[in-house]
């Protein structure tokens, strides 16, 4: 049975009706426009389907539908909204295998990672269900007699979600599931490189909303290029924009939203480092480094870009890393025997050619049987000095830069000396080194780990970073507060009107 026939069956099960699969006619129109997004798989360069881009008229219709739905959704009790999200989680459990394969084929990540991404949707649904009964405010003692003060949180309204290709469904769900239990409705603008996975998610959700007689406008999707995103970010009807992508993109989004006094939640570039001290357990450190550097072909915002190694173990660790890289299996990500799949497109491949430093494991473009797409690249390791300009930038490819240090203070200075501040790790069995790393004098990143790698964040914690990473927080902890507006309330239950600060005003 051919890969295309299998993928066509998957698309149809996910509610995506394909016409002449893999040909220029492609997918039926999703919107009314005549411009199309072509979704090509980086696995084999085959056209999966075409998706009609949203016109401005489509956008206005979606916005009106969302505004109407919000008026109903915000008045449904939060625990009931949580029940809807619970059912959504169950629906994603039912379609996990199919959606995971589609994620793998359309984006290029390994099948295990594609399935894992759908599992993240399921997990955040579970988290959001519990959260729906825990949208707590505070009570405060008033300085005035017979008065009570408290604060509460109300839904914001429409939340705009702009997602990136590398996590085409999981990061959207971190926003959407939390926003929904908070009483918001969502308009999702997925990456133009991975529109099919987004449409599949929308179809899965639509069936749950219909069964519960919930307005469809609670969950909305618009497809297109950057112009569609511009409509969303500039729209005063959207109080919160959550955007994931490059720092360059985030600066544009942040400025646009701020100019209209809106709120933005930005998850931008990462340039993540692992510090390996002389006190590290290398049996766990090496697998963490390799997975962090080559997982998703280095196309994670939490991918390990820099490895900072103590000089006493530098040479021996370097040799072990080279041997580990020689064991990597690169190929079709739907084959579970492979560790590394393709990059997303040719533009990403071109970025690999810009690597610098002394190459310990050479980068190479793979071609021939199994590599027909031209997007398969051999992960590489480069030896550099910490001050090299090349290590100050995020390269979305499987390139690992290694460097040495002499003391922990120097290691921390090297780690923090980049514009980004997302994820960081240290491997050490020394308590003082670990605690210093986690202190105010240590890592300046939003995520700081001890004896685990830079990637693989759990949904229970708030996800995000500092500096040019944008400062946003998604997913767990109290990240839900970004999706609501805070209101302070004072109630006078007495017969007098005492004014603040003892002011008297007699009329």
Explain how this protein is built.
Homotetramer. There is one protein chain. With 507 residues, the chain is of the alpha/beta class. Helix content is 35%, strand content 20%. The protein has 14 helices and 23 strands. Helix 10 links the parallel strand 10 and strand 11 (304-310). Helix 3 (78-94) packs across helix 7, helix 4 packs across helix 5 and helix 5 runs parallel beside helix 6 (170-181).
Chain-wise SSE layout:
Blueprint: H1 3-13, E1 36-40, E2 47-52, H2 56-73, H3 78-94, H4 96-107, H5 111-131, E3 139-141, E4 147-155, E5 158-162, H6 170-181, E6 185-189, H7 195-211, E7 219-221, H8 226-233, E8 240-244, H9 247-259, E9 263-267, E10 272-276, H10 282-294, E11 304-310, H11 314-326, H12 346-352, E12 358-361, E13 364-365, E14 377-378, E15 380-383, E16 399-405, H13 408-416, E17 420-421, E18 423-427, H14 431-438, E19 447-450, E20 462-463, E21 466-467, E22 474-475, E23 484-492
Parallel strand pairs: 5-6, 5-8, 6-7, 8-9, 10-11, 10-18, 11-16, 15-16, 18-19
Antiparallel strand pairs: 1-2, 3-4, 4-23, 12-15, 13-14, 17-21, 20-22
Helix pairs in contact: 1-4, 3-5, 3-7, 4-5, 4-7, 5-6, 10-11
């Amino acid at each position: 049975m051919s890969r295309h026939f299998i993928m066509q069956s998957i698309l149809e099960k996910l509610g995506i009706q394909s016409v002449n699969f893999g040909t220029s006619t492609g997918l039926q129109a999703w919107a009314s426009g005549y411009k199309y997004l072509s979704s090509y798989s980086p696995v084999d360069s085959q056209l999966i389907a075409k998706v009609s881009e949203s016109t401005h008229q489509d956008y206005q219709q979606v916005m009106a539908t969302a505004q109407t739905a919000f008026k109903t959704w915000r008045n449904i009790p939060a625990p009931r909204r949580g029940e809807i999200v619970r059912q959504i989680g169950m629906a994603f459990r039912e379609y996990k295998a199919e959606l995971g394969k589609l994620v793998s084929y359309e984006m290029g990540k390994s099948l295990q990672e594609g399935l894992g991404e759908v599992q993240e949707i399921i997990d955040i649904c579970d988290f959001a269900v519990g959260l729906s009964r825990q949208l707590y405010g505070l009570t405060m003692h008033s300085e005035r007699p017979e008065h009570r003060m408290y604060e509460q949180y109300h839904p914001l309204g429409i939340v705009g979600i702009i997602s990136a290709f590398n996590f085409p469904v999981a990061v959207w769900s971190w926003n959407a599931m939390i926003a929904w239990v908070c009483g918001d409705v969502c308009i999702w603008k997925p990456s133009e490189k991975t529109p099919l996975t987004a449409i599949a998610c929308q179809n899965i959700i639509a069936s749950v909303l219909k069964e519960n007689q919930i307005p469809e406008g609670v969950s909305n999707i618009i497809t297109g290029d950057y112009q569609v995103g511009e409509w969303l970010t500039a729209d005063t009807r959207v109080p919160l924009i959550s955007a994931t992508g490059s720092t360059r993109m985030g600066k544009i989004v942040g400025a646009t939203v701020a100019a209209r006094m809106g709120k933005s939640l930005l998850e931008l570039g990462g340039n993540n480092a692992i510090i390996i001290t002389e006190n590290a357990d290398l049996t766990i450190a090496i697998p963490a480094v390799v997975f962090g550097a080559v997982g998703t072909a280095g196309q994670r915002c939490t991918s390990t870009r820099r490895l900072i190694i103590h000089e006493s173990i530098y040479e021996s660790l370097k040799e072990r890393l080279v041997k580990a890289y020689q064991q990597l299996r690169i190929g079709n990500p739907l084959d579970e025997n492979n560790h590394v799949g393709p990059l997303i497109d040719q533009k990403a491949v071109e970025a690999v050619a810009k690597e610098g430093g002394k190459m310990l494991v050479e980068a190479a473009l793979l071609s021939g049987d199994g590599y027909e797409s031209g997007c398969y690249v051999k992960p590489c390791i480069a030896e550099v000095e910490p001050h090299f300009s090349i290590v100050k930038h995020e390269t979305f490819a499987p390139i690992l830069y290694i460097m040495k240090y002499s003391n922990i203070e120097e290691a921390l200075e090297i780690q923090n000396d980049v514009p980004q501040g997302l994820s960081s790790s240290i491997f050490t069995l020394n308590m003082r080194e670990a605690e210093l790393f986690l202190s105010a004098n240590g890592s300046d990143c939003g995520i700081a780990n001890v004896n685990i790698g830079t990637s693989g964040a759990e949904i229970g914690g708030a996800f995000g970073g500092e500096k040019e990473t944008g400062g946003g927080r998604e997913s767990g902890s109290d990240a839900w507060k970004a999706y609501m507006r805070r209101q302070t309330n004072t109630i006078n239950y007495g017969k007098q009107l005492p004014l603040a600060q003892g002011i008297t005003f007699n009329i």
